[in-house]
Amino acid sequence: MTTEFNEIYLSAVIGRSVINSKGEQIGILRDLVMVPGEVFPEVSHIVIKGRKGLKTLPWSEVSLFTHVVISASSANPPGLCTYEAYEGEILVKRDLLDKQIVDVDGAKVVRVNDIKLGNLNQKLCIFSVDIGFRGLLRRLGYERFGERFAQAIRRDIPHSEISWEYVQPLEANSSKLALNIARDQMNEMHPADLADIIENIPIRNIRTVLDSIDAETTGDTIYELEADLRNVVINQLNDEQVTDILEEMEPDEAADVLSDLPEKKAQELLDMMDQEDAEDIQELLEHEEDSAGGLMTPDYLRLTSQITIGRALELLKECADEVETIYYGYIVDAEDRLEGVVSLKQLIMNPPETLITDVMEENVKFVHIDAEPEDMLETLAKYDLIAVPVLDEEDRMAGIVTVDDVLAHYLPQIIKIKRR
Fold it and tell me: Read out DSSP for 83-104?
């Protein structure tokens, strides 16, 4: 059966008469049942409000679908039956219209004012959602009036539509319609943008966003949140999920998150974590939060004086995913005492057979583990460093503090992009 229809907005068809092939009225269109499609979500059934309640009609038995009338393909459609809701069912009007969604292209939360439907291989699909003022006017029946008024004042009412491939629904039911591309793009969004989204949606929808991103991205996003909301988010996850996320985070960031939790809860999570990760974080938690020991990360590119630049580059590749910054390699002895530093530029510019001792800087600038933020900032600024090594009470290498760690202490509203 070939159905006659073109692109059309949901607002233009909801409430329109549904007739059979003889022109007899069956009822009025109440909603559309959606299922995931190969490209876009597809309509499987239409929901009709008749004199005896709600009925459904398979899309395959619809022959005409316009803003004037909707027609079944026969006088007594065999598929017409009483509507029975089932768990997990997705209705376009009920579950999408007026609901919040994530625009993963524009990295913001928006509200759906209308929905564009279209023909794809004789299937009725959702092509895009209208999030603009024009969509709202259309639903209210004032689009033409709005256009005339805009022309009179020499203005334009823009079309603000988002293709479905860039949509991530937030409601529990409609989130099942999300396409893989939306989830992939959510993972590619900057954690600060995701934090923006979380801060601007109802708490009940936060879990939907978290379920759409991987553990590493979740950790980076949680770190960007203000402490109060951060704890709300963590409480929506089970302990196993939280520990997975903490293990993906940089140790200093994980320590920062745990320091805002009740001590008992933080310790329970540490006990569940990988022992090595837990020990690194525990060590950071033992220092004052705003000291070098509290702000540092214990992960850095550790080198020895006996190796060549070629070997140093191999080590760099092996640990690149684990260390916070790869701009410097620190040369230490068997007891972790600092002997020198080499920059990434030096590693790249010199022949691989060159000994690391031939290019390393022996006069290394450092701070002690109890250094105050102003001391760290002064050292970083004075010597134009991206990171500075931190030495413990016995002058052994304990970790590094990066410039963004220190700036985050002084400028949390800027570094974390405070949403006002």
Answer: ----TT-EEHHHHTTT-EEEET
How far is 280 from 30, CA to CA, in rounded Å?
58
User: For residue 338, what are its two tokens?
Assistant: 């600092």
Q: How far apart are CA 136 and CA 41, in angstroms?
A: 23
Going along the chain from its start, the domains and CATH numbers come out as 189-286 (1.25.60.10), 301-412 (3.10.580.10)
* Separation of CA 361 from chain center: 41
Distance CA 45, CA 69 (A): 16
DSSP class of residue 334 equals T
Report the pLDDT averaged over residues 339-364.
94
Q: Is the pLDDT of residue 181 over 60?
A: no
Please indicate whether residue 120 or residue 304 has the higher confidence score (pLDDT): 304
Residues in Cβ contact with 223 at an 8 Å cutoff, skipping those fewer than 6 apart? 191, 230, 249, 253, 256, 257
Residue 118 neighbours by CB under 8 Å, 6+ apart: 6, 7, 8, 40, 124, 125, 127
Q: How far is CA 195 from CA 108, 172, 185, 228, 230, in A?
A: 10, 20, 15, 13, 10
CA distances from 373 to 224, 282, 333, 391 (A): 20, 21, 28, 15
Predicted TM-score (pTM) of this structure = 0.53
